[in-house]
């Protein structure tokens, strides 16, 4: 009576009930693989990246199916934000500006300049200090002490 009220064939209703009971082993395996690939990416892979990784494994799948599987699993791609570098807020009058932006040096080893920075490599911050000879424009010295973390 309900099927005739909604103009649905009884065979369609019973086919739908059978489909809901049966577990789709391929879909369960795909969901598991998508979850694994997402975890390996550190939560940064989206549906296109997941699709590419699955295709490298030889799995034939479309982008929208990958997106739907991610949505079912509650996986949301999160890209890392850009690094906020510390900026100087005040001038330092106690440090004299001897170069005054005159970088044209006549002889080597007359004027050296240097800088320090932090570089993210191998999963951690590395401190790097470099000294340049302004005549030759080459690095005179560089130093990176082990296991130094920035204080900010």
Architecture overview:
The structure is a single chain. By secondary structure, the chain is an alpha+beta fold. The chain has two domains: about 1-75, no CATH class; about 80-150, no CATH class. The protein has five helices and three strands. Strands 1-2-3 form a three-stranded antiparallel β-sheet, with no helix packed on it. Helix 3 (about 25-40) crosses helix 5 and helix 4 (about 45-55) crosses helix 5. The longest helix is centred in the N-terminal third of the chain and has 16 residues, at about 25-40. It is rod-shaped. The N and C termini lie far apart (about 70 Å).
Give the topology string: H per helix, E per strand.
Answer: HHHHHEEE
Report strand %.
15-25%
Averaging pLDDT over every residue, what do you get?
86
Shape: rod-shaped
Radius of gyration: 30 Å
Structural class: alpha+beta
Largest sheet, spatial ordering of strands: 1-2-3
How many domains in all?
Answer: 2
For the termini, the CA-CA separation is 71 Å
Helix content: 25-40%
Low-confidence stretches: none
Largest sheet: 3 strands, antiparallel
């Amino acid at each position: 009576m309900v099927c005739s009220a909604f103009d649905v064939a009884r065979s369609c209703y019973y086919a739908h009930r059978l489909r809901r009971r049966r577990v789709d082993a391929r879909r369960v395996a795909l969901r598991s693989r998508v979850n694994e690939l997402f975890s390996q990416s550190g939560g940064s892979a989206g549906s296109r990246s997941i699709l590419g990784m699955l295709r490298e494994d030889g799995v034939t799948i479309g982008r929208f199916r990958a997106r739907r599987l991610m949505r079912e699993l509650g996986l949301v791609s999160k890209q890392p934000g850009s690094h906020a570098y510390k900026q100087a807020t005040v001038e330092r009058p106690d440090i004299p500006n001897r170069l005054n932006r005159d970088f044209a040096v006549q002889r080597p080893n007359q004027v050296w300049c240097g800088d320090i920075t932090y570089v993210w490599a191998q999963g951690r911050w590395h401190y790097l200090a470099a000294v340049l000879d302004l005549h030759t424009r080459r690095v005179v010295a560089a130093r990176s002490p082990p296991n130094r973390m920035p204080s900010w």
